[in-house]
Predict the structure.
Amino acid sequence: MNSEEKVFFNKVSIMGVGLIGASFALALKKRGLCGSVTGFGRNGSNLLKAGERGIIDSFDLDPVRASADSDLVLFAMHAGSFTETAKRIAGSLKQGAVVTDVGSVKGSLVYELENILSPQASFVGAHPIAGGEKSGIDTADAELFQGRRCIITPTGKTDKTAVEMMAALWQSLGAEVVFMSPEEHDRVLGAVSHLPHIIAYEMVNAAGEIDESCLKYSGAGFRDVTRIASSSPELWRDVCMLNKGNLIHFVDVFIRRLEAVRGYMASDDAESLEEDFRKAKTLRDGLGQD
Amino acid sequence: MNSEEKVFFNKVSIMGVGLIGASFALALKKRGLCGSVTGFGRNGSNLLKAGERGIIDSFDLDPVRASADSDLVLFAMHAGSFTETAKRIAGSLKQGAVVTDVGSVKGSLVYELENILSPQASFVGAHPIAGGEKSGIDTADAELFQGRRCIITPTGKTDKTAVEMMAALWQSLGAEVVFMSPEEHDRVLGAVSHLPHIIAYEMVNAAGEIDESCLKYSGAGFRDVTRIASSSPELWRDVCMLNKGNLIHFVDVFIRRLEAVRGYMASDDAESLEEDFRKAKTLRDGLGQD
């Protein structure tokens, strides 16, 4: 198939109906790209609410039943439960189904899922860069992926037709599709997303450790730096653990940068400190304001 | 005087006409709290532009002439030049003039300025928590201080009447006035403002060191965490150097926090990592979203 063509899935299962899963469902429905959507999750009242809002057409608290006759199964729960869920549903998936995900971490997980799910179904890893610190279906939006990048992470074994279908699907949702290997994805996202989350969480914890009562004097700067510390601890626990190979190294890089700054202050080297800050400003200004 | 009363200054000098200095001038003029405003700065074309926009009524490239007959002199240039400027103008200031500032760092600087300027003039340290990563007169705003905190930092030697006048002035501009010692100010702001600036600059530098080409995949999270890395390198060089006593210690606290996270990842301790992130989320959620 040509990635310019529209894809259509008769039945879609959303495993994990949070902001991204719900937005994906709404986006597919709005564009007429699916017949019906079934939701799976641990929280019945959330699924009920998603049903009332027309995000999903039905739901099942059992992952096997929720996915058994689907043409497209989206993993949108926390990445830490991907492997276990894949093992539970693998044997009962429809022959030829496509399983994909929206997880923030890929790496070895993609190879594992590919092995667990084949030959019954094809797995295609995907990561739409959208969402931020918000979570839950209340802010779900059919246009969430419009103008965002979606990274698709095929391996040497990934079914090419399934990859093309997923590329076409994400393009239909308004995303710009980029292909990377799972390893490249985790290196890139480790640097620009996972490490910043660790930094934001620990900036809050450091301020709390210094003196919690300081926090009431925080201004826009502190709020910006720490906004993503409101993100889900479970989600980022999973991401950090699954990408720890890169992140341990990146934390070391960051600590070395802090030690350099510490050294400039300790040795009264104002010139090097300014040069260091200026280098950062030039790079950051290059990204543009938003 | 009573801090509920309005204050009025016949002539005001703004030393350093950037975002904060210009907004202060506009705020005073809008509320009829001054007769005329003179600007001083290193950049003649900026002063000319400020004059054309009615931010200042006159300007002088010589700090002595710019401040000689003023009732209120505001130091709004980079903190690194406060001492030198104070030394230059001290002898020619009007008897009884009030000199104040809007700098992000206080500490020993307040005691130095107090000594340099007295007995001719009274120095009162002040720090309105407003501005963020923007700079320059293009975004100057008479309402910039509305609803913001302004920290006033008297010492045991600071003239009490001058302190009350400054408190009344900032309240007139819509700010909530808080009193702290210069030392307490630098500890609090070091934790919630200065350290976050170092973190933001070094997050950008770390990503650049890992792989600059990663930056094009940065999402809202990275942009939030690093937004203040677009702040002035000279200004933050000065702040870091002047508050290095606290900041060296705070950088160490932060490094220890990162080392804890590194340890949780290295030892597969997902539970401690989640607990650590959750503690941060709880603290951050307490500040509210904005």
